């Protein structure tokens, strides 16, 4: 019956061809399923063209220059980045916002692509409106996976929407560097773009209602704010915005509730994300259009045994690497269920996204970098754990002092005292991103501190901070 109502059928239909959707599709194809992936913009998604890749390319030149300047004799202390060269390099990583290479990869992997806007049109049916306005209805024999991600949320501040503000998309795809920029929001996007544009020569103001990098250990935001201010960025925490307006000369004026008026060439809104589910046809299956999609640990939408939501759209962890982790689990479990295979959905099972619960690694590529895994001290206490917090000055580690003159940073280890394992770690400092995977293994593997004493860090490296943290915690007893 269903087949007669549709134009074609596949075992799995994936809506959204970003890295998450691509990974779901790839795992399913490897498992023997036929897969159609639907994309209305560029294959490769937000990460490839407007987020991870271009933003890190914008940040890298400035961080590399400052790293060299912290080692006497390596670079002219008065040197500045070449903004034109930075933008050119950034564009190379987006392939000039052209997706031929990504499409060729889909073809090589055996994944069919439909260009257009995909919507759910009933149980296991997806309606695709093509670029030419044509409409097709495709049946999914086994499953549909939604991997549409998120879009920038515009805050309900008077006048903001009318000022035609930048979001992360405009900030990462800019062709001309603005003279001045006001950033609303002190999270990851706000702080990273403040770093990038300060390096490019823009006069930057950051307005945050709270502190910077909320949700992380408090010292992370404090150290990042200090570093931004040292580089001339006007960081205003506790800032309450009354309204914004686009002036006749094209500039943006931001009125603060304390009466202060700030002006800049552009306004960047970086106050969070919302699910890209407003026009997905969710109402046709009894769900709410525009909502986050609630899933179990196998990424299946609760109450719908054929529907999966993978990546940012399920609100478990809004990070590309976590979305790809979820995608591997989802693709494999879709194959298992479609072929009658065994489903391993218990904690840390191959079909369960267990790490989303308390073992999420994240790097904020500010200068200093912030690298974290697992629970903060506050989160661990809220979870009812009996913890001990161990802090250490990263600048006191021999490897750090060799790495850069005047090295400033801090490390924190959060220990579950009842089990004797690390449940969280945060590092702030130059190049600490490369410390993170060791911490991730310690947290995910629940490695006892007594065993970590035998993981000897090489000397002289910044990784020696692990030994210093353990020494501060205290020697193991027999």
Keywords:
single chain; 478 residues; alpha/beta; FAD/NAD(P)-binding domain; Enolase-like, domain 1; 3 domains; seven-stranded mixed beta sheet; five-stranded antiparallel beta sheet; 15 helices; 21 strands; globular; FAD; dihydrolipoyl dehydrogenase (NADH) activity; Pyr_nucl-diS_OxRdtase_dimer
How would you describe what is shown here?
The protein is an alpha/beta fold and 478 residues long. It has three domains: 176 residues, FAD/NAD(P)-binding domain; 111 residues, 3-Layer(bba) Sandwich (FAD/NAD(P)-binding domain), CATH 3.50.50.60; 106 residues, 2-Layer Sandwich (Enolase-like, domain 1). 30% of the residues lie in helices and 24% in strands. The strands form five sheets. Strands 1, 2, 3, 4, 5, 6 and 16 form a seven-stranded mixed beta sheet that branches. A five-stranded antiparallel beta sheet has the order 17-18-21-20-19, sandwiched between helices. Strands 10-9-8-14 form a four-stranded parallel beta sheet. A hairpin with a 4-residue loop joins β4 and β5. α3 packs across α4 and α3 packs across α7. The protein is globular, with a radius of gyration of 24 Å. The termini are far apart. The mean pLDDT is 96.
What layout of secondary structure does this protein have?
Elements: E1 8-15, H1 19-30, E2 35-39, H2 45-49, H3 52-69, H4 83-93, H5 100-109, E3 112-115, E4 117-120, E5 125-129, E6 135-146, E7 150-152, H6 168-172, E8 180-184, H7 188-199, E9 203-208, H8 218-230, E10 234-237, E11 241-246, E12 252-256, E13 261-264, E14 266-269, E15 273-275, E16 307-309, H9 320-339, H10 355-358, E17 361-364, E18 369-374, H11 377-382, E19 387-393, H12 398-403, E20 410-416, E21 421-429, H13 436-444, H14 449-452, H15 465-473
Parallel strand pairs: 1-2, 1-6, 2-3, 6-16, 8-9, 8-14, 9-10
Antiparallel strand pairs: 4-5, 5-6, 7-15, 11-12, 12-13, 17-18, 18-21, 19-20, 20-21
Helix pairs in contact: 1-9, 3-4, 3-7
């Amino acid at each position: 019956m269903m087949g007669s109502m549709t134009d074609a059928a596949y075992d799995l239909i994936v809506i959204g061809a970003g890295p998450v959707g691509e990974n779901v599709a790839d795992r399913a194809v490897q498992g023997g399923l036929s897969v159609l992936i639907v994309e209305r913009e560029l294959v490769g998604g937000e990460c490839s063209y407007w987020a991870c890749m271009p933003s890190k390319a914008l940040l890298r030149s400035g961080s590399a220059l400052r790293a060299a300047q912290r080692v006497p004799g390596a670079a002219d202390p008065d040197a500045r980045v070449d903004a034109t060269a930075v933008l050119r390099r950034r564009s190379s990583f987006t392939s000039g916002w052209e997706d031929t290479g990504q499409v060729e990869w889909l073809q090589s992997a055996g994944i069919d692509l439909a260009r257009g806007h995909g919507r759910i049109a009933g149980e296991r049916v997806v309606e695709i409106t093509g670029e030419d306005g044509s409409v097709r209805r495709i049946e999914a024999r086994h499953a549909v996976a939604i991997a549409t991600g998120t879009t920038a949320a515009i805050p309900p501040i008077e006048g903001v929407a009318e000022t035609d503000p930048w979001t992360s998309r405009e900030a990462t795809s800019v062709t001309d560097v603005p003279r001045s920029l006001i950033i609303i929001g002190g999270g990851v996007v706000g702080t990273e773009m403040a770093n990038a544009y300060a390096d490019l020569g823009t006069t930057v103001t950051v307005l945050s209602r709270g502190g910077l990098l909320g949700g992380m250990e408090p010292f992370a935001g404090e150290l990042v704010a200090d570093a931004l201010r040292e580089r001339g960025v006007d960081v205003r925490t506790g800032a309450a915005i009354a309204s914004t307006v686009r002036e006749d000369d094209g500039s943006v004026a931001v009125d603060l509730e304390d009466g202060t008026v700030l002006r800049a060439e552009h306004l960047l809104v970086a106050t969070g994300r919302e699910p890209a589910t407003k026009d997905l046809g969710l109402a046709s299956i009894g769900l709410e259009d525009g909502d986050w999609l609630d899933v179990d640990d196998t990424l299946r939408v609760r109450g719908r045994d054929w529907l999966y939501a993978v990546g940012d759209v399920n609100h478990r962890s809004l990070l590309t690497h976590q979305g790809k982790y979820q995608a591997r689990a989802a693709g494999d479990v879709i194959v298992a269920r479609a072929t009658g295979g065994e489903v391993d959905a218990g904690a840390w099972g191959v079909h369960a996204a267990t790490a989303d619960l308390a073992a999420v690694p994240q790097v904020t590529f500010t200068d200093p970098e912030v690298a974290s895994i697992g629970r903060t001290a506050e989160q661990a206490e809220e979870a009812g754990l009996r913890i001990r917090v161990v802090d250490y000055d990263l600048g006191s580690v021999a490897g750090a002092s060799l790495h850069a003159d005047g090295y400033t940073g801090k490390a924190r280890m959060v220990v579950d005292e009842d089990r004797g394992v690390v449940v969280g770690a945060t590092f702030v400092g130059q190049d600490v991103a490369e410390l993170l995977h060791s911490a991730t293994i310690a947290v995910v593997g629940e490695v006892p501190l007594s065993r970590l004493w035998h993981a000897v860090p090489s000397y002289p490296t910044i990784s020696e901070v692990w030994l210093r943290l353990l020494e501060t915690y205290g020697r193991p007893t027999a």
